UniProtKB/TrEMBL annotation:
GO biological process, alphabetically ordered: protein folding
Protein name per UniProt: Disulfide bond formation protein DsbB
This protein's GO CC annotations: membrane
Compartments where found: Membrane
Lineage of the organism: Bacteria, Bacillati, Bacillota, Bacilli, Bacillales
Keyword terms of this UniProt record: Chaperone, Disulfide bond, Electron transport, Membrane, Oxidoreductase, Redox-active center, Transmembrane, Transmembrane helix, Transport
Transmembrane portions of the chain: 7-27, 39-57, 64-84, 109-133
Length: 138
């Protein structure tokens, strides 16, 4: 597992790039219009692709305290969004009052994988990799 610590910044950057590219694919190629919560998740993910790219290039592990609040907020928001989609009673809490409903599911792979689920996994993976990167400096 020691090799993960050495490459944690690069792997986190790769996850952020895939998540950013995936969200752009879904909206620009597949034509899925993002709901309000999707936009907030993008606001938290897109800077990570830039921040982690620069940190990877410079091998700068001091970015960990700046990245973790973005990933924690993104994971919490993605989890809430996922619950809106999968728990019928949560639909009343939806902040998406006009436009695209937050409870809509453009994809539903294997009965549980939706876009907010993918975002949640990405935010959690980046968080874990940042934790490993931080541990690599001890």
């Amino acid at each position: 597992m020691g090799w993960v610590r050495g490459y944690a910044l690069y792997m986190a950057w790769l996850v952020a790039l895939v998540a950013t590219g995936g969200s752009l694919y879904f909206s620009e190629v597949a034509g899925f219009i993002p709901c309000e919560l999707c936009w907030y998740q993008r606001i938290l993910m897109y800077p990570l692709a830039v921040i982690l790219g620069i940190a990877s290039y410079r091998d700068d592990r001091s970015v960990v305290p700046y990245v973790l609040p973005l990933t924690a907020g993104g994971a919490a928001l993605s989890a809430f969004h996922y619950l809106l989609q999968k728990v019928p009673g949560m639909a009343a809490l939806s902040p998406c009052r006009e436009g695209i409903p937050c409870s809509g599911q453009y994809i539903n792979w294997l009965g549980f994988i939706t876009i907010p689920f993918l975002a949640f996994v990405a935010f959690v993976l980046i968080s874990l990799l940042m934790w490993a990167a931080r541990k690599g400096t001890d």
